[in-house]
From TrEMBL:
The keyword Iron-sulfur applies. One of its GO terms (cellular component) is membrane. Keywords: 4Fe-4S, Iron, Iron-sulfur, Metal-binding, Molybdenum, Oxidoreductase. It comes from Streptomyces qinzhouensis. Residues 1-25 are annotated as: Disordered. This is FdhF/YdeP family oxidoreductase. Its cofactor is [4Fe-4S] cluster; Mo-bis(molybdopterin guanine dinucleotide). Residues 121-489 form the Molybdopterin oxidoreductase domain. The keyword 4Fe-4S applies.
Length: 759
């Protein structure tokens, strides 16, 4: 079978601009899916793979964490972008030892992320010796010995950092944190630190559980769904099906976003012929908010609710909450004029929103990175919680909080203990089960890991998936930090920038992905994942592995642990590698909610984890009640002549994996170096549509951060705001610009000036 050869690196990033799309999905999405799948996998493999996505006997889509629901599944239970994620992994292209012999590391560092990703699946473990300019093949045994050697040379286990990205299964994640803690550190940063950490922080404090409180059925039953700071048409396309269903049952939808995102305007559901023909208008009200204005918006809505007779659910507030009086006093002082400045909205729009809120018995608020990646992100999400608590909209069918997670198992990884600040109860359980004393002091999150590497306080970096170098903020600082390490190790499926920007020595450990069949000494294995709504279910790959040399993630961790911990470890690593059921038996005894895990995981469709606020209106917080909070309202202030830049995803990428150079729904084609600016702002700044500029960050440390050569696109974003794609713009996000409490990089509020280019 012949697949299309990868084009050479399209270094000439030459974006062309057309009108933005007005609807999402529909037939163009189907056509696109078929083409991408065919190019990467060929026809037979495409069918075989795509028909198993998200089926009860199949594998969990490696795309987003949107749930599948418990009822009957559609035969095509995936979306265009899920299919791209699958095709990217199940591709027939291969990165072999010959590839590495041909391309020196210095050359790989010059390549675009797009080109690197297009090269295919990595087939053999590879080693870059100190002073070497090429990766060379290495045996698994030798690779683990190198890691053991470097770890043994540290003066403390806290000089090593162990990162996790959110595709790692529950079984692998549990083993990984077990190994790392037995080794002696809590340095377990993960992609969540850059993602929904703000949600976790805010929800744990206010509701007692750092996860969403709604199921898919709740969404279907809601009267009002607020979608704030999220672009589901691209990042969670199957969510549009749920919104369409809710809409058909009478729900109203408010979209709060600086951009008019296509999916929230009109959705053409390819699973539904009528919808496909006509499309469904999803949002009833579009609040085109200024970046960072959400806390002010919700605070004013809360004041208006409090001042409307009978609007507050007084019984719920009395019986289940704490801190109402203090919060109400703060809310009453909310000011219209300041809110209009902070949000850029007009009075009539907010009044219309209030009408929809007051008319709703059952309200859900969904959000993603548009709320979590700001300095005041945690305060913003707490205000969302205040909003729902006022209406008694938590722990009731059709209502609640819905932080929509990113990576397909990012939520499960945290449940399994991937966390730099583990709860004492979790460590107690680990100690009791495995008979060693886990470290109790907190470890490094992502930002602190970068500082530690930069300052020489951490010397070994090991990543269980992901692309740390490209996903992290302040690219220049992060790259220099990683280059200082003695050893960097990447457990990966595909090539990315983190393989090219390395420590003195480097290893690439190639692993099985979700779609690959996993056979161990104990027979064929499956793994489990947890979706955004707390459903845990099995995932079984069905393709022959990309190469016979690959090891699964659990096998890699188990062998690494044996090499590093040696005879001193009483943990049965070999047994865990042989049969993942043995890992699940331990998870069942350590992690609450996983009792009888093996039996329940084997059930088609899996099981739902308990969630006290949702299930029993019980709030395991410090006060034993749901907490109202009263933080001062904040919003970004932008100096004259500057814009507030958000760094976001195009329709053709999965985080740092770039599938292609188009952003169909926004009308951008053939390039990614574009900056979307409102025509009036552009006019004021003297920037013609199509002009080329450098984006120059302005941060209080006075360091110049520059992203060169972006094409200005006149686009209907909120005034004073701009948007450009990540990871090209990560160079502009200062390492120290993070959210209060959660320490999440403030990737959605970067003050920039646009400098016209001389050339
Ligand atoms: N196809 C695909 N799917 C993905 C991913 C992917 O890259 N590709 N990534 C996965 C991951 S890890 C994650 S975390 C999710 C991310 O999912 P999203 O959060 O939807 O991703 P972003 O592209 O960062 O989009 C942020 C949205 O918030 C809006 N926004 C920005 N600032 C503000 C603000 O201040 N207020 C409000 N109200 N809105 C704002 C932006 O205009 C944009 O619509 O998607 C997951 N799914
Ligand atoms: N400026 C800016 N920065 C951001 C964001 C933003 O919105 N703006 N978003 C942030 C968010 S929300 C997130 S989640 C992070 C994402 O950060 P990461 O999770 O670190 O990055 P990804 O691009 O998802 O990682 C892709 C790589 O994972 C590897 N991989 C894929 N599947 C598997 C697997 O099954 N096993 C293993 N071992 N490896 C695998 C492949 O080698 C692939 O190249 O980026 C963050 N960075
Ligand atoms: Mo994410």
């Amino acid at each position: 079978m012949v697949t299309k050869p990868p084009a050479d690196d399209p270094a000439q990033d030459a974006p062309t601009i057309g009108p933005p799309g007005r609807s999402a999905a529909g037939l163009p999405a189907v056509a696109h899916t078929v083409r991408v799948a065919h190019e990467q996998m060929g026809a037979a493999r495409s069918l075989r793979t795509l028909l198993k996505v998200n089926q009860k006997d199949g594998f969990d889509c490696p795309g987003c964490a949107w749930p599948e629901g418990s009822g009957k599944r559609h035969r095509a239970e995936f979306c265009e972008n899920g299919a791209k994620a699958v095709a990217e992994e199940a591709t027939l292209r291969r990165v072999t030892p010959e590839f590495f012999a041909e391309h020196p590391v210095a050359e790989l560092a010059e390549r675009s992320g797009y080109w690197l990703g297009q090269q295919g699946r990595i087939t053999e473990p590879m080693y870059l010796p100190e002073g070497g300019d090429h990766y060379t093949p290495v045996s698994w045994e030798r690779a683990f010995a190198i890691v053991a050697e470097e770890l043994a040379g540290l003066s403390s286990p806290d000089e090593a950092v162990f990162y996790t990205s959110g595709r790692t299964s529950n079984e692998a994640a549990f083993l990984f944190q077990l190994f790392v803690r037995e080794f002696g550190t809590n340095n377990l940063p993960d992609c969540s630190n850059m993602c929904h950490e703000s949600s976790g922080s805010a929800l744990t404090e206010t509701l007692g559980v750092g996860k969403g409180s709604v199921s898919l059925e709740d969404l279907h039953q809601a009267d009002l769904i607020v979608v704030a700071g999220q672009n589901p048409g691209t990042n969670h396309p199957r969510m549009l099906i749920a919104l369409e269903k809710a809409k058909a049952a009478g729900a109203r939808i408010i979209s709060v976003n600086p951009l008019p995102e296509a999916g929230l305007e009109r959705f053409k559901n390819p699973q539904n012929p009528l919808s496909l023909l006509r499309g469904t208008q999803l949002a009833d009200l579009f609040l085109q908010i200024r970046i960072g204005g959400d806390q002010a918006l919700f605070r004013l809505l809360n004041k208006l609710i409090i001042e409307t007779g009978g609007a507050v659910d007084e019984e719920f507030v009395r019986d289940h909450t704490h801190g109402f009086e203090e919060f109400a006093a703060a809310a009453r002082s909310a000011d219209w004029a300041e809110t209009l400045t902070a949000t850029g909205l007009d009075r009539a729009e907010i009044e219309r929103a209030l009408e929809l809120v007051l008319a709703s018995e059952r309200t859900v608020v969904c959000w993603a990175m548009g709320l979590t990646q700001h300095k005041h992100a945690v305060a913003t999400i707490r205000e969302v919680v205040n909003f729902l608590l006022l209406r008694g909209a938590v722990g009731r069918p059709g209502a609640g909080v819905c932080p929509v997670r990113g990576h397909s198992n990012v939520q499960g990884d945290r449940t399994m203990g991937i966390f730099e600040r583990p709860a004492p109860a979790f460590l107690d359980a680990l100690e009791k089960e495995f008979g060693f004393a886990p470290p109790r002091h907190h470890g490094f999150d992502v930002v602190r890991s970068i500082r530690a590497l930069r300052d020489g306080d951490a010397k070994v970096f090991l990543a269980m998936g992901g692309n740390f170098v490209a996903a992290s903020p302040d690219t220049a600082v992060t790259e220099a930090a990683l280059r200082r390490a003695r050893l960097t190790v990447q457990v990966s499926t595909k090539l990315n920038r983190s393989h090219a920007v390395t420590g003195r020595r480097a290893l690439i450990l190639p692993t099985l992905g979700r779609t690959d069949r996993d056979v161990q000494a104990g027979g064929r294995q499956f793994v489990t994942v947890e979706d955004s709504m707390g459903m845990v279910h099995a995932s079984r790959g069905n393709l022959p592995p990309a190469s016979p040399s690959l090891l699964s993630e659990p096998a890699i961790v188990a062998r690494l642990a044996r090499a590093v911990l040696g005879a001193g470890s009483r943990t049965p690593w070999e047994e865990f590698e042989r049969d993942y059921g043995a890992i699940r038996d331990r998870i069942a005894r350590v992690v609450p909610g996983f009792e009888d895990f093996n039996a329940r995981a084997a059930r088609p469709g899996g099981f739902t984890l308990p969630h006290a606020p949702r299930d029993e209106r019980r709030f395991p917080t410090a006060t034993g009640r749901a907490n109202f909070t009263a933080a001062p309202v904040e919003y970004p202030r932008v100096p004259e002549g500057r814009l507030l830049l958000q760094t976001l995803r195009s329709h053709d990428q999965y985080n740092t994996t770039v599938y292609g150079l188009d952003d169909r729904y926004r009308g951008v084609r053939g390039g990614r170096r574009v900056v979307l600016v409102h025509p009036e702002d552009a006019g004021r700044l003297g920037l013609a549509d199509g002009a080329y500029v450098d984006l120059v960050g302005e941060w209080r440390d006075g360091v110049e951060r520059r992203a060169p050569g972006f094409r200005v696109v006149h686009y209907p974003t909120a005034r004073g705001c701009a948007a450009a794609y990540y990871p090209e713009t990560n160079v502009l996000v200062p390492l120290d610009s993070t959210a209060d409490t959660s320490n999440t990089p403030a990737s959605k509020s970067v003050v920039v000036r646009l400098e016209p280019r001389g050339d």
